[in-house]
Each structure stands twice: as structure tokens, then as C-alpha cells.
Design goal:
about 0% strand; YdcZ; transmembrane; Transporter family-2 protein
Length: about 140
């Protein structure tokens, strides 16, 4: 149940962040919005880290260098999301974003990429993705 609550919270924050970034980018520019968003996110994460006192910096040595670049995806995500919201609106952008996310996670799970346990995908998973895509197409008509 906790996992579902956090997933819903994360999804809501993605939408709110996209809208806020679009408003910032209207006044300042898209890369400026990405910079401010990354900076405020860093500050909040650092404050939470200090508050919970979870300082396992030794684990950093165990992380593969390519995974340390994961935060850089945030800049691309923000730029892409802001640009898409400006072009096609919030609802369609978030719908397309979720489909892209689901499709890529489907590939990661089914191929066992990045060290995740390989999952066997069956007809219900294929139908779920097809229904989401169909729903977005119908919504955009």
C-alpha cells in the first residue's frame, strides 16, 4: 500500500512540476526553469538528508559511474516536458509521458536491463499498453 501511495504522490508531483516549470519558462526560459528546478530539488533533498541523518556516503563507491549520471536525465525531462506542455497541453503531455515511461519500463523488465530481474511479459501487459495508447488517441480526437 505504501508503494501505491508514493507512486500516486510522485505522479501528482510530476504533473505539478511540469505546470510550474512551464510557468517559469514563460517568464525566464526553459533551461532557466530546468536549472531552478534542479537547484530547488537539490536543496530540498539535502535538507531531508540532513534531517533524517542517513549519510551512507561509503555506498557511493559501490555505484557504477554510469548510474551517477541519472540526475542529468532530470534536465532533459524538464526541458522536454515544458516544451511539450507549451506545444500540446498538460493532459496530452502527461499522457504521452506516461506511455513512454511504461513502454521503456516494459523493455527494461522484459530484457533484464540495468541488472533488474527479467520479467516474462504476457498478453495482459501488451493489452494494458495498447489500451493506454488507444485512450490517449481517443482523448486527443
Amino acid at each position: 500500500m505504501r508503494g501505491i501511495i508514493f507512486a500516486l504522490l510522485g505522479g501528482a508531483c510530476i504533473t505539478l512540476q511540469g505546470v510550474a516549470n512551464t510557468r517559469i519558462s514563460t517568464d525566464m526560459g526553459t533551461w532557466q526553469a530546468a536549472t531552478i528546478t534542479q537547484l530547488t530539488g537539490f536543496i530540498l533533498a539535502a535538507l531531508i538528508l540532513i534531517f533524517v541523518r542517513d549519510t551512507n556516503l561509503q555506498g557511493l563507491k559501490q555505484v557504477k559511474p554510469m548510474y551517477l549520471a541519472g540526475g542529468a536525465f532530470g534536465a532533459v525531462i524538464i526541458f522536454s516536458e515544458v516544451t511539450a506542455i507549451q506545444q500540446i497541453g498538460v493532459t496530452f503531455t502527461i499522457s504521452a509521458l506516461l506511455i513512454a515511461q511504461l513502454f521503456l519500463t516494459f523493455l527494461v523488465d522484459s530484457n533484464g536491463w540495468f541488472g533488474v530481474v527479467k520479467q516474462k511479459m504476457k498478453l495482459p501487459q501488451f493489452l494494458g499498453i495498447a489500451l493506454m495508447v488507444t485512450g490517449v488517441i481517443i482523448m486527443k480526437l
